[in-house]
Every structure is written in C-alpha cells, then in structure tokens.
Amino acid sequence: MTAGITRRALAAALLVGTTIALGSAAGAADLAEIKERGQLIAAASGNLPPVSFLNASNELEGYDINVARYVEDKLGVPIELVRLDWKGILPGLQTGRFDAVFSNVNITDERKEIFDYSIPYSRSAVVVVAKEGSGITGPADLPGKRVGGISGGMDGEIPAKEIEQEFGAFDQFKGYAGYAEMFADVEIGRVDAIVAPDTAAANFIREKPGVAAIVGEPYRVRYVGVPMQKGSTELKAAIDEAIREMRAKGLLDEWGQQYFGIEDYSAALVDEVP
Q1: CA geometry: angle at 59 spanning 54 and 61, to 5°?
Q2: Does the domain formed by 7-121+225-268 have CATH 3.20.20.150?
Q3: 14-69, pLDDT tens digit by residue?
Q4: Taking the domain 124-222, which CATH number applies?
Q5: Residue 27 to residue 77: CA distance in whole angstroms
C-alpha cells in the first residue's frame, strides 16, 4: 500500500497552500490518465480520528483510510495520500492538486455544483457533545456558552453558526483544525460544548468514559462521499463500484463497528448520490 506519507506527498501539501489563491480548477484527470500517470493523488486530514489519524507507527489509519486502501486495490493504481488541514482540502481539490479526497466530506448541493461525488460510503449525524453535568441538553441550550467545532466543517462550524442564528448567540465560538485539540478542550473545560459528527463523538466517549456525552437529538444528518474534480466520470464509476463491493462484503459494517462502535453501520446508506 502507498497510503503512508512520502516526501513527495508533503511537498505536494505545501504546494497546495501556495496555489489555493489561483481560484480556477484544473481540468479533471480521469481514470485513464491516472493509470497512465501511475498513481492517484488524494487528500486526507490525518487529524480527524477515527476516520483519519496517525497511528503509533506514524501511518495514516481510520475508517476513511480503509476505504481509500480498498479503492486502491480495486483500481490497481497506488494512491498517494497527502495530509492537509481540513480548511485546505477542498480548495486543493478544486485547483487540481488532488484527484479525490478521503476525509469525511459531506455531500451538499453546493458542493455537487463544484465536484463529482461517489455514492455515500459513510454518514455524519451532527450532534452536540457537552461535559457531564453541564446542564446542556441540546442545541437550544448553547446560547451564552463557549462552543467549538471544526473550522469550516459541514459537521462543525457551519451547523454551529446555524444553531447560533436559530437559538441565540454563543459566548464565543472556537474553531479547530482537527479533533484531537477539540476533544482535549472539552475534557479540560476550555469549551462547554462542541458541535461534531456522531462518529467522532462516539469514539471520544468510548475512549474517555464519563467525560462528556452526546446530548439531545442530531441537529442534522448528512451523507459522506468521495469528492472528485468535475468530469471524473470513469473514476467515479470505479469508486462507486468499489463502495458497493465494500457494502456487499460487510466491510463498511465491520469498520463502522471497529472505529465508531456502531452496528449495521451501512444500513442507513443509500445507493445513489443524494
């Protein structure tokens, strides 16, 4: 497998940071061109456990990484995973630095206008996570509180701002680049609550029992797919086929149990781009 971080991958990550401002997407490299090139270049955060994180061997691991590795085997083309903070990932894809992204990217109508998407391989229920004993019972209790979330995330800052508009102003909002610092701040009390996907929240609660809890009903549920550059018709078809195989083999359920502690994880997925 080529999911480990290489010097070339790190160089590509730095290059993304200097080219995002260009603002115009390069033409999509479809499957034939990717195979001729000899690798598919994809982005992953590496800072969003349990979907994407660095393990004790400093290698990328997680639910989304397992999906990427299966796709790699299916395509017969090495995938070079470039680690990048979430806020730079979609701009990097849009400017043509990546062919695809495996990083818990929610499918939205706005994003579908810019990217091609695979069928869903995961889903993200937006929930409020609060310290035990905080008295917070759901989104309506967040006005006047210190709230955190992933910066720019469709399951973080964006729904948090919608909650603020609907129920009232927070005392403050703190944005994070990844889950590690965010959940650490919950544990030590720097924030009163966070807005996060239930998959990441369940993993944190499992690892740190008694610290915090998911409160109230999910604020929103979204599907997660692999975004690609517009015009990636053959690549999308191949990734869709790989996702269907993973579902049929029970792999998504196996990984959902392993990383999220959720049984029958794929049961809620659909076989089309919503």
Answers
A1: 60
A2: no
A3: 333 333 333 334 467 789 999 999 999 999 999 888 999 999 999 999 999 999 99
A4: 3.40.190.10
A5: 20
pTM above 0.85, yes or no: no
Q: Sheet holding 52-54: strands in order across? A: 47-48, 52-54, 60-61
How far, CA to CA in Å, does 263 sit from each of 245, 255, 259? 18, 10, 11
Give the largest Cα separation in the chain, rounded: 58
Residue with tokens 């029958």: 264
Tell me how far apart the alpha carbons of residues 160 and 142 are, in angstroms, rounded to a whole number. 9
- Domain map (residue ranges) of the chain: 7-121+225-268, 124-222
